[in-house]
Fold this sequence. Notes:
Elements: E1 2-10, H1 15-27, E2 36-37, E3 41-43, E4 54-63, H2 67-80, E5 95-101, E6 106-108, E7 111-113, H3 122-131, H4 149-152, E8 156-157
Amino acid sequence: MTRVFIALGANLDSPEQQLNSACEALFTLAKPDTFAVSSYYRSAPMGEVEQPDYVNAVASLETDLEPLILLDELQRIELEQGRQRLVRWGPRTLDLDLLLYGDAIIEVPRLTVPHYGMNERSFVLVPLAELVPNLILPCGTPLQHLLTPALQSELVQL
């Protein structure tokens, strides 16, 4: 079993309900009694596309799925909840990103783990720290070293 962390985000079609439904689906991929999810946070969208704020969270679970199979499952859940990939950083019903897969560093065409950019994204770091405050990233950096007061102030806990 491998402990994985997955970022959840939505800003269309009742975002909090989208995250609730995603958590139910993610729970089915988890080893019993290993699923946890952070609080939900409101964050401003990235990029230049005008759109509503996001609701974000991070989930943790242990799974026996290999990384690319897990990615397939995450994309299946997104599609089942109406995800359409029309505009980069555009609005979406659900976005599920595999942040960490144990201590693995993965770089293949379909998947990069740790997730690129996660070290600068408050909507990932803050909920991740809520779940595992003393986490050491695969590169050896303590998660707490990335959490600046400015970064933490970018989010509103729901």
